[in-house]
Amino acid sequence: MSFYINNNNPNRPGPINSSALNNICERVLIEANKVFDACINRDTITGAVVTLSDFTPASPAEPLTYVSAQSDPTNPATISNVTIDRIESRPNYANVSATISIPITVSYIDANRVPGTATGTITVDRSAVLFVPQVALSPVEVKAVAAVSSDIGTISGSTATITYCIQTILKIVSEVDILVPSFGYPVLPPCQMPNPAQTECPGFFELPIYPTAQRNG
Hints:
Layout: E1 26-51, E2 53-56, E3 65-71, E4 78-87, E5 90-109, E6 115-131, E7 140-156, E8 159-182
Antiparallel strand pairs: 1-8, 2-6, 3-5, 3-7, 4-5, 5-6, 7-8
């Protein structure tokens, strides 16, 4: 089983109703990135020029026929040139601007009808008015998330000219300690195995899964 397969134990993640609140057993201090503000921007860019590298397979036969370009969630965007310009009439708000660089993978078919890929980077400038907390010991950061998708473009040599859709998210975050209500630790169910093992290890699993602490008073 798992948390969600054939598991009726109440100490598991999932929806709750009002009566379940009676089972809150402690206040837990967690370290987390608190998001103070965020906004999303969607746009279409036409005629963007992207320098390509890392052709796979190497030395494709030209001309190359453009197929598509996509960002990769496992290779996230990076942010630079961050500026936080506070608004004098609204001291808790600021004009936030940054440069966002998004790695993309471009797919093509070469002159011999062999499919291939190359890599490039989309760079955009973004700005927005966002809530920015006042200065504290815990620093505030600007973070960005971005995604790119394209199915219109051409390739000439190591340069692609593309039209792409882009979605960017700017966030104002800070790593903080937060006190939250808790139901305690979950009860971990045994895994549902396609071919369950029969081996037992008596005495080996005596340690608790999670640490516990006895409070004095």
